[in-house]
Write a structure and sequence with these properties.
By secondary structure, this protein is α/β, with parallel strands linked by helices. It has a single domain, classed as Alpha/Beta hydrolase fold, catalytic domain (Rossmann fold, 3-Layer(aba) Sandwich). It has 10 helices and 7 strands. It has a 7-stranded mixed beta sheet, with helices on both faces. It is globular, with a radius of gyration of 17 Å.
Length: about 270
């Protein structure tokens, strides 16, 4: 099967054939449509690539292999295969949200030749607390409880997580609704595999292997990736820049796209 069909790849072409390339990676339970408020700002100066991870969005469900995607490595391999399949051999500007940040970092560590830089929105190398030196935001029991809720009441889980990711009572109701609908439309079996791979990953030891420059866009009030996580990333990622956005929730590209666009433009202008 062609990789375009497997991942529902969409390419927004630029005016110039040699235009820089932006590749967007969505978060857990999401899809490429979540970037729709960002991509118009970079047309037609950039060639932009959107795709859905296996088991998400409009990716081919027949391709989802629980064994391959039991860890983030399967998605890292897919990202590299997507770039290679599109003939992108260097200079890629990767923009990732949430778990896509880890996938992008791991891909950059494995194939640094592919990437010019990384924009990391709501990144977390590890969601689990490891006291006293690391506060990821969750205890193991909290995450196990979230997976149990997924098994027992999938709709209830989607509503709870949609509200949490959007920022709860202080977040955007529109974003919460869109996230809930996206979670609900994802196959539960695939969602559970991706959820465990996402929330129990620990990629802290991989950070020193990353040599690609990065912009960390940290939400000021984010229950999934607290400020301490962004600061940890900044300390442990070489050639990184930390910018804290005055945003409640975990999805600034959806709730406050202008802030993300401005930060990206300023970062690319200095390159």
């Amino acid at each position: 099967m062609r990789i375009h069909d497997r991942h529902h790849i969409q390419v927004l072409e630029a005016d110039a054939p040699d235009a820089p390339v932006l590749v967007y990676g969505h978060g857990f339970g999401c899809n490429q449509l979540m970037w729709r408020e960002v991509t118009p700002a970079f047309q037609p100066a950039y060639r932009q690539v959107l795709f859905d991870y296996a088991g998400s969005g409009l990716s081919d469900p027949a391709y989802f292999d629980p064994a391959r995607y039991s860890s983030l490595d399967g998605h890292v391999r897919d990202l590299i295969e997507i770039l290679d399949g599109l003939g992108l051999h260097a200079g890629v500007h990767f923009v990732g949200h949430s778990v896509s940040c880890s996938i992008g970092l791991l891909a950059a560590a494995r194939r640094p030749d592919l990437f010019a830089d990384l924009v990391l929105i709501g990144a977390s190398p590890c969601f689990v607390n490891h006291p006293p030196d690391y506060h990821g935001g969750f205890e193991v029991a909290d995450l196990e409880g979230l997976l149990q809720l997924m098994d027992q009441n999938y709709i209830g889980w989607a509503q709870f997580l949609g509200s949490t990711v959007s920022g709860g009572e202080q977040g955007s109701e529109a974003v919460a609704g869109e996230l809930t609908r996206s979670f609900c439309s994802t196959d539960p079996k695939a969602a559970r595999v991706f959820a465990r791979a996402t929330f129990f990953a620990d990629n802290r030891a991989d950070l020193p292997r990353v040599r690609t420059p990065s912009l960390i866009l940290q939400h000021a009030r984010d229950s999934l990736a607290p400020l301490s996580v962004g600061e940890y990333l900044h300390r442990n990622l070489r050639d990184s820049e930390l910018r804290v956005l005055d945003v409640t929730g975990h999805c600034a590209h959806m709730s406050h796209p202008a802030l993300v666009i401005d930060a990206m433009r300023a970062y690319y202008a200095r390159a």
